[in-house]
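Deviations from the work plan: none for this task. Representative record:
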Amino acid sequence: MIIVLKSGVSEREVADVERRITAMGYRPHTIRGELRTVIGAIGDDRGKERLRSLESLETVESVTPILQPFKLASREVRSANSVVQVGNVGIGGRKIVVMAGPCSVESREQVLEVATRVKAAGAAVLRGGAFKPRTSPYAFQGLEEEGLKLLAEARRETGLPIITEVMEPDKVDVVAEHADVLQIGARNVQNFSLLRKVGAVGKPVLLKRGMSTSIQEWLLSAEYVLSGGNPNVILCERGIRTFETSTRFTLDLNAVPVLKKLTHLPVVVDPSHGTGHWEYVESMAMAAVAAGADGLLIEVHPRPEEAMSDGPQSLKPDRFAALMTRVARVARAVDRDA
Amino acid sequence: MIIVLKSGVSEREVADVERRITAMGYRPHTIRGELRTVIGAIGDDRGKERLRSLESLETVESVTPILQPFKLASREVRSANSVVQVGNVGIGGRKIVVMAGPCSVESREQVLEVATRVKAAGAAVLRGGAFKPRTSPYAFQGLEEEGLKLLAEARRETGLPIITEVMEPDKVDVVAEHADVLQIGARNVQNFSLLRKVGAVGKPVLLKRGMSTSIQEWLLSAEYVLSGGNPNVILCERGIRTFETSTRFTLDLNAVPVLKKLTHLPVVVDPSHGTGHWEYVESMAMAAVAAGADGLLIEVHPRPEEAMSDGPQSLKPDRFAALMTRVARVARAVDRDA
Amino acid sequence: MIIVLKSGVSEREVADVERRITAMGYRPHTIRGELRTVIGAIGDDRGKERLRSLESLETVESVTPILQPFKLASREVRSANSVVQVGNVGIGGRKIVVMAGPCSVESREQVLEVATRVKAAGAAVLRGGAFKPRTSPYAFQGLEEEGLKLLAEARRETGLPIITEVMEPDKVDVVAEHADVLQIGARNVQNFSLLRKVGAVGKPVLLKRGMSTSIQEWLLSAEYVLSGGNPNVILCERGIRTFETSTRFTLDLNAVPVLKKLTHLPVVVDPSHGTGHWEYVESMAMAAVAAGADGLLIEVHPRPEEAMSDGPQSLKPDRFAALMTRVARVARAVDRDA
Amino acid sequence: MIIVLKSGVSEREVADVERRITAMGYRPHTIRGELRTVIGAIGDDRGKERLRSLESLETVESVTPILQPFKLASREVRSANSVVQVGNVGIGGRKIVVMAGPCSVESREQVLEVATRVKAAGAAVLRGGAFKPRTSPYAFQGLEEEGLKLLAEARRETGLPIITEVMEPDKVDVVAEHADVLQIGARNVQNFSLLRKVGAVGKPVLLKRGMSTSIQEWLLSAEYVLSGGNPNVILCERGIRTFETSTRFTLDLNAVPVLKKLTHLPVVVDPSHGTGHWEYVESMAMAAVAAGADGLLIEVHPRPEEAMSDGPQSLKPDRFAALMTRVARVARAVDRDA
């Protein structure tokens, strides 16, 4: 931590701050500049948010951490890329892994049709929502456990592993029973009870970024799962909230190289939520792969105009197949397999 | 809903969209403009997000709702202000209700000292965190049930009703047993399982705005609680996330008059989180009351520089007492009691 | 500046960075922590952005400035509040100064009617746009010099000093000839050529915050004017751009106490642009004064529904008079004159 | 325009709004829904912001435009892509055009060295700043006209056309004398005087998006240039301002497909400013091309650690050459030439 003192503090006041730093278990190292005195607090400051409380002293101007606050997620702890295994598929390796399917599981016919079509087009994982987080209490809330069973049936039919969202700690066990990957949605990225619970199961966890979660906070959420004992965390960029309204969210592809620098965890991108409009999904899917993403999460629906949710951003199966062909070309151009 | 068609659509395509609107249970009313054809879908579109899926048709340019999507929270359903009763205190009436106390309950001495001091200064409710949502898994996570008991003891000592946060559905019952108001934190504003659960208990619920939640989404979250059968919802503005870094969040006081127009629910403001620095809390507390807020939520700690959490934004008891005096003057200037 | 080195740098690499710091005229002071080596660059780093280029070294993780980069605008250079004199009116003193008038000067009748009405209600300065920055080239662009003359006539009739916007360096002289205060609009807050030009005239300058300008950048824009030799700068918060769409902008009242801490310059608030809706203007005007603002800038139009620009946020004269009465009560509650 | 009336308006009030719409030259078409009456104002509403003033009526809830407000920039006016010719280079055609060079022209040696190196690596245009918009008045402000001459010399040496920024109307002629493309910087995107002035010269104009400019506002700024008679406008996405601080800005690549849908103008991307860190530039350059950009703007400096400005985001010539090779592979994967 770097503690900057206000201008005009006395030697006694400097000594008081030094004493407090020592009392918290750090070693103070004071630099007297021309205009300010600055104290470095030497010691591992990760997770030691308590030092920040010094900012409430009238003699202190600001307290700034030096280290990134996460540990297990960090490249410094593990320099090689982590590969999370989902069935036969490794996420984070050479292959670009595409997870596709409907926003909501709506019926047996729907989910089987989509599963067959996305598999034929080259998707490696089937996505589909059974428990749905909906902004309005009056909107369709998902088929719940019935939806999980339909997804499991689609897996039996197609062999595709499945990913689906879990929204509360109490449902983790039942979802983990049916799903191959547990998805934590954007609205739950700081639902710490849920993160702890999925940290205690062995299944891979796909952790979506919240719509206003900084990359640092997101990695701290991943740290909840990792420190709970579950190393199988996949990060998913899905768009952040900005002032721009011509898209539903602003897909932050900068996050891909930033994450690749900071963490060993695999990174996938969801261009469906990240744009909110089917017309933009293909372009942003290609961009994500070019930026270095390890995979994609894409919404596909046989009849988007009748979808119970997220119709505007869903692709028809034919368009999805065309996207897969184009994505594969970009993947090869960046030395990845598709 | 207003459905704008793309330019150049044929009469047959217009008829197709009209047919789909009818099939969804609405009455289409088509306006042929100079450059665009627009169809109004007549019917109650609140919560009927499904109409939006028409946006995925290639003939449709955009779909725009006309009505605010919430019902029970709306001024149209109830024009008079709701007053939520907490012990003897009514929130939403003439009196400005101040809820104050430490971010985290840290010890018996700490919470009793703060409770006594804030009561003496005029606070009407004691706040304190027992279950703490912390960004880092390595940070202090609260005293949990022990903290609830200390809060209950502080209530016995001072007579102040208490407000404390609940973070997961499973804990709602135990928190409701001890607390007078259940606080839903910013990170859980779209934790719909939790919202449903607190909608099923009778206790008042203080619902904080999420850091990137629009006012419309926030009222839909309130609607989850209201439609669950619990009418006692208090809204709390606590700052949104913007590009500005000189404060921790940007306190959106515009939200106060906007909410007063849209909803009958009481509105309180948290200037401690909304600024993140104790030096700015008093100014923004006064501003909130002048803007029309019904109450305040303020962090007070006897020794902020040693606080386990949120020290930089906590007031010492003396400063809090000074704030109460100044807030009271502003309250009277806007015809409120303090 | 604090330069944080990457983990694992060698002694030779540390020495290389120290050498570069010395070569740039600073004194390096190195702290070896447990996990990182940190070098303080001792010397006045204000405006010395060049040090930041060290961040491009492969051995450097980050470069963080210690001091705020502005000088003349800073409280450290001048601790007492500056009062900017406009005619007989001092802005930044005990009196809350209200500047009111139409968005655009549209006709002689309109501007004279508004001037008379706002003066009667207690406004101290007349605002009105002659040169209008309009988002669309097809929108009304203002009456230009004819508008300036109408404003000057309104001053003669009412005795109110006038404030009007100047949009380009070439027009500064003609606007300064007619106006008492030169307004720099939000879109020109980083139009450095214009800032330099108004720094070279003696007239007071009201500098609006840009819609995405940080407080630090805003004060650096003020520094352009101050360092040009013109000490008469008034800062005007007018709302920033965020994700929230229920208001036109998000009025950042946090900026008021932040500025009062950082700078001696007077601070006024524009609740008309800051909300974009006339219904919210009165609440936010009162909040601004309670937060510590020195004045207000408010749009008033006799027939807002026929206004050439900004009708939705303009008050009718009667409503403005009511606002003035309510604002005066809040002003007295915070020990200001109105 | 769609005008939504408040609930409970009387027939007389509806008639009053209809009358006003007619008086403004539009044809009202009224739809009576179950809960609201809605009036469509038929007629070309582009640039007719004045209709919005109806929102200030107490009977009106909201006014929403139907059409995008720009005309000449629109795909509806011109469906084929525009190709802007710069010397022998066409921007907006099959070829990905890379413009590279230093942030600031610092010396003859520097600019000639960079010019030679970027040409060898395949850049088609040389960029370099002579007039520099700097946040601080104390920072290096550019070599001004001397810088223009050095750029012209580099053109003679290498044959590369040059792009450089112009900051004020008075300098447009001198910059146009030396430059092949006039760059309008992010901070001047709504400097309407400057836009009008460059609209009156024939030279190509590269118009950067402002850091908080919506895509719609940006196209209206382009419309200023186009409606001035200059059809040679190139749009440049360079990152928007969001809450995320791990990058300098958030590069909004969503803007590429959105622009490709809305406008015929060429679109280039600046990953140097869009990330602010050299380590992320290559990834985002590739992503931009995959998303459909027509070109790139990249900062290259022989010794970034000694740069007078923007060192942290500048590439060394070797890294730039490596980037060009990788970008070319992505370009071919999306059927573009490099």
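The first strand of chain B starts at residue 2 and ends at 5.
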